[in-house]
Structure formats: structure tokens, C-alpha cells
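Thread: quick sanity check before group meeting

JM: Hey all, I'm pulling together slides for Thursday and realized we never actually wrote out the predicted structure for the chain we discussed last week. Dropping the sequence here so it's in one place. If anyone has concerns about the input, flag it before I start.
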Amino acid sequence: MNFRRFTLTTVLAAAIAVVASAPAALAQSASGYPNKPVRFIVPFPAGSATDVVARVLGQRLSEQWGQPVNIENRPGAGGNLGSEVASKAPNDGYTIFWGTVANAISATLYTKLNYNFQKDFAPITLVAKTPLVLVANKALPANNMPQLLALLKERHGKMSFGSGGVGTSNHLAGEMFSSQTGGGMIHVPYKGTPLAYSDLIAGRLELMFDNIVPALPQIKSGQLKALAVSSAKRNPGLPDVPTVAETLPGFEAVSWIGLLAPAGTPQAVVDKVNKDTITALADPEVRDRLAATGAELVPGTPAEFAAFIKSEIATWARAVKASGAQAD
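JM (edit): ok, ran it. Output follows.
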């Protein structure tokens, strides 16, 4: 064997050995995962629905993994700032992104984004669905849906609803509701729902759809009243509050939260995080804590989450088009 043939044979043998050992190495890396702190990027501020769920799950996963799970809040631009940061993070499994319905909305609401929600992320699992609640100032002369519909007809063009900003799920849910009840509601956007709550409680605003997680404390404290929930079924957190669909058949606008990793993260790691998350969500203490917020736990496979994301982008694209909302 001449030197050239020997060198070629040696290189090919080494390459085959590397390829053959790759599955074993990947499996080993997944079985040893994580061996350092894991970062959860939450694209909304502390106290938001996503943040609340992330902290409960993060605590449990930290206990399972024996490693810290650090929550990194990156709010801004309707969740797009944190999304962009996460999309450019190393795809080694140590950065996990908390995607939400806002990402599905942004896919068509914005003509220019510095990330692609479907291409730049690997879905891990849907974690929870959180219905929106139609809350009202407690002095509003309507305590149920029939009374509200009558009031909307009486005050056509004069009643307002708030939101956390143009193109948010509570804005689009409000537009959908206004459209199905004859139109005429005035949208008042805020830079986040905390400011909207202040005006709603003070009576400067009349109605708002918002995520059940932050809305529930306001309702239970008596500062606001709940008229309906936006999910297809009643929520266990508010069992006596009817769905909008009970009065307006077919109405549904549900928020959701799920885990994703930067695209290219090893599938073995994605599968392990999926499995460990499902185990954590099955823990009675975790389930009870999240149930108290009104969140409905709905974990599944990465493939199921990918299909869900695709359908959600299509669903909210229709709502964006109908509302005429634009943001860039």
C-alpha cells in the first residue's frame, strides 16, 4: 500500500468511526443532560402568565435535573424581542424558549421580523392553554352576556375595550367579539395590561379580554367582574362563569404557552426535555399550583406541538386580517 492509499484509507476509517459513534455519543449527551444550568427565556415581564407558569415548571425541573433553571425575562415588542434572542441562542439544549400565542399572531401581524417562528425553533411540547376572560368594571350595568349584548346595542359606538397593545391576543379577541356582536366597540391599546387594569378598575375603561392567569386575582378580589371566558368549555378556575360561545356559538380565542429550543438542538435532548416536562407536569403539587391560576395543562409530543403551531398561525392570520391590525 503506497502512502497516498494508506492516508485515504486511514481518513475513511476515521470518518466511519465518527459516524458510527455519533448516535451513541448523542444518546450519552442526552442521558447526561443537563450537566449545567438551563436558561428559560420568557419574552414577557415577571408576573405575566408565561412567567408564572415558567417559574412553577422551572422549579420542578430544577429539582428533577439537579441543576438550576434560570428564568430570563426579555420583554418587549409584543414578545418578539425575547423571541429573537432565543432564536439566536446556542442550540445545545441549554436555552429553552417559552413561546406563546403572541408568536403565532406576530407571524402575520408583522411584515418584518428578525426571526422565523416555524423555522428557527424546534418545538418541544405545548404546556398549557389559558383562556381569556372578558372582565368588566364592576359598576358596568351588565352582569351577564345577554345584558351586555343589550348594553352594546344601546350604547353602539360608545363602549370601549382595552388591550395590552395592537395585535395582542386580547386586542384581537376584542375585535372578534365586537365583530360578532354588531361592531361599534372602541379599542383602547395600552403598553401592557397593568395600565389597562388601572383604568378598568377606576371606570375609565369598560371591558377587556385578558389571560385568566393575571385576571383571576382581580376577579377574586372583587375589583372586576367576569362576564365570560373565551374557551370552548368553562374553566375550572371560574366554573360559574359561562363561555362566550354559550351566547355566541363558535366563538373561541385561547392563549397558550409552550416550550421550544433553537433549531438544530439535538433531537435526543428535545425528546428528553419533552419527557421530563411531562413528568414534572404530572406531579400533583405542580398540577395544583397551575390549576389555581386557571391554566389547563395540555402537554404532548414535539410533532403535535409543531402541527398545533401551524394551525394557530393560520387561525390568527384570519383574525389579524379581519381586524386590519398592523405592526412593525
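AS: nice. Strands lie at 38-42, 69-73, 95-100, 121-137, 160-163, 186-189, 207-211, 224-229, 254-262, 296-297. The chain has eleven helices and ten strands.
JM: adding both to the slides.
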